[in-house]
Design brief:
Elements (H helix, E strand, L loop, with lengths): L1 H8 L4 H12 L2 H31 L6 H5 L5 H20 L6 H11 L1 H12 L7 H23 L7 H22 L32
Helix pairs in contact: 2-3, 2-8, 2-9, 3-7, 5-6, 5-8, 7-8, 8-9
Length: 215
């Protein structure tokens, strides 16, 4: 219930749609302003997560299994994110004067909650939340911008210049790299482990003098 209350009080996720429109228009300035607005909102959630973690350490132990669910990648979360991004982009283009609250709630739930859980884990000392939640936030944000861009292009808004195509390609590349990092597709090379070698030792034969019996 607390998660739902927080998301209902979250600001409208128009900067995600703004980043998609900035990509289509080929405006780096508008794109960066939209991304910066998302990051400012994420920073506010992160700070409140830090405060919640401090309060949690002062209270009696309480199970926080649901917090762990927001710091790991899951296909149901990705499906909710995709539905929210597609619905938000479609409704904004078809009815610009209306704000799709349901779609915005889905985006805020999947983008901002992992940031709050990451801050909560940093101050509460609970492992598995920081920096895992930040990675989930980055993947969900890039995926949401990519999906909104695809919907805007599908509705007839083509990139105006080469810069627009470049931004779209950069978002696609970032989404692929983030997904590979999250699913373990890219692994950092580890230094080779030295293998002990066995040096064979040959037995040394000691010559013995055999006495010759007298005739």
């Amino acid at each position: 219930a607390l998660y739902v209350l927080v998301i209902l009080l979250a600001p409208f996720m128009s900067p995600v749609l703004g980043a998609a429109l900035g990509t289509v228009m080929g405006s780096v300035r508008f794109f960066m302003r939209s991304v910066a607005a998302v990051l400012i909102g994420a920073l506010i959630f992160f700070i409140w997560g830090l405060a919640a973690g401090i309060i949690y350490r002062l209270l009696p132990a309480y199970p926080i299994q649901q917090a762990m669910d927001h710091s790991v990648f899951s296909w149901p979360d990705l499906i909710v994110l995709a539905l929210g991004a597609i619905l938000a982009a479609y409704l904004i283009i078809k009815a610009p004067r209306q704000r799709p609250l349901v779609a915005s709630v889905a985006l805020a739930y999947e983008i901002l909650l992992p940031v709050g859980m990451s801050g909560f884990g940093l101050t509460s000392g609970i492992g598995g939340l920081f920096p895992d939640g930040l990675l989930v936030f980055a993947v969900h944000l890039v995926a949401a911008i990519l999906l909104c861009t695809v919907v805007v292009i599908a509705l007839g808004f083509r990139p105006r210049n080469v810069l627009g195509y470049g931004l779209a390609a950069l978002i696609v590349l970032g989404c692929v790299v983030a997904a590979m990092l999250l699913t373990g597709g890219i692994a950092m090379p580890l230094p080779p482990t030295p293998t002990p070698t066995v040096t064979p030792t040959l037995p040394t034969a000691t010559p013995t003098i055999t006495p010759v019996p007298p005739p």
